[in-house]
Write a structure and sequence with these properties.
Length: 314
């Protein structure tokens, strides 16, 4: 129920976070009070995701490295560049500019793996793309943000690299190792891992909503339009990249969803930590948009009579 109706739960919890002070006055705000722990909460999320990776997935990434590397390259080239072009085209400034760029520079999200399954795409390829993009994120994400933001922000690149390492890569590798080593951990992760990861991301987005209650009613149309276009053009970039690499339809669908479904949960945490809660608003909004569009696209593909079943590439 949680995974199937993730967008609905995201909306409900965010609405609760938005109206907490009005609906339950006098009771401490659990969303804002938990804001200082977002980094650690996201590390728990990535530990759960690492525990869900199939035992041989890292080996699979190495075995089919040309298509995985090609897909990851498409994502890390297209999305940051699109985010920068759109932000400049709509003349975004300050927190809005930073937020759109953060949303474009982060790696793909686990939600793309689930939607690839619904879309009858190649789930194994989708997981491999997410795994590689996540593992290289401490190098690529700070470099991309520095490249595009250096005119406006003095970014501490080494600090961001370390932040991504201990918050993303180390928990993923630790979870994967624990799954491979201990049968009890594997059983527990299969039962609770997805729930823990989804609940954590839902809470992170709700915290950002709570921190921006006053600003949400004043969000400019240009910011919303830039995020919508970033999502749609990201899907198009994934399709064109898959076509250029001559991927079969199931793998092409996986790449389309991977490129368009950014890890906005990570984006909100990074933006909050390095640029403030105002900059986290754009990645949080992007979460709603990409979840909605990705779900609709996956449902459309799932209804196609000539859709291929998910298969592992040779």
């Amino acid at each position: 129920m949680l995974q199937r109706f993730l967008l609905l739960w995201l909306i409900l919890l965010s609405v609760l976070a938005f109206g907490w002070n009005s609906w339950v006055p006098g009771i401490p705000d659990p969303f804002r009070s938990s804001a200082p722990g977002l980094n650690y909460l996201f590390a728990v999320t990535m530990l759960a995701i690492g525990s869900l990776l199939p035992a041989d997935e890292i080996r699979q990434v190495a075995r089919r490295w040309p298509t995985v590397l090609g897909g990851t390259t498409v994502q890390y080239l297209a999305m940051p560049l699109l985010a920068y072009v759109l932000a400049r085209l709509f003349r975004l400034e300050g927190a809005a500019l930073i937020g759109v760029l953060v949303a474009g520079c982060v790696p793909g999200a686990m939600a793309s793996n689930v939607l690839t399954l619904i879309a009858r795409g190649n789930v194994s390829y989708s997981v491999s793309l997410t795994a590689l993009a996540t593992l290289v994120s401490p190098l690529v994400v700070p470099a991309a943000l520095w490249l595009f933001l250096r005119r406006w922000v003095n970014l501490d690149v080494p600090q961001m690299m370390w932040q991504l390492s201990w918050m993303v890569v180390i928990p993923v590798l630790a979870g994967h190792l624990l799954r491979r080593t201990f049968a009890v951990w594997e059983r527990a992760s299969q039962r609770f891992g997805a729930t823990i990861a989804n609940l954590s991301v839902l809470w992170i987005i709700a915290v950002v909503v709570a921190q921006n209650r006053d600003r949400l009613t004043q969000v400019e149309f240009s910011l919303l339009l830039s995020l919508v276009l970033l999502n749609v053009l990201g899907f198009l970039a994934g399709f064109l990249g898959g076509w250029a690499m001559r991927l079969p339809p199931p793998m092409r669908r996986a790449l389309v969803l991977e490129v368009g479904m950014q890890n906005a949960g990570l984006g909100t945490v990074l933006a909050t930590h390095f640029f403030g809660p105002e900059a986290a608003l754009a990645p949080a909004i992007y979460t709603f948009g990409c979840m909605l569009s990705g779900t609709l696209l996956a449902r459309f593909w799932s209804r196609q009579g000539n859709a291929h079943r998910s298969q592992r590439p040779g």
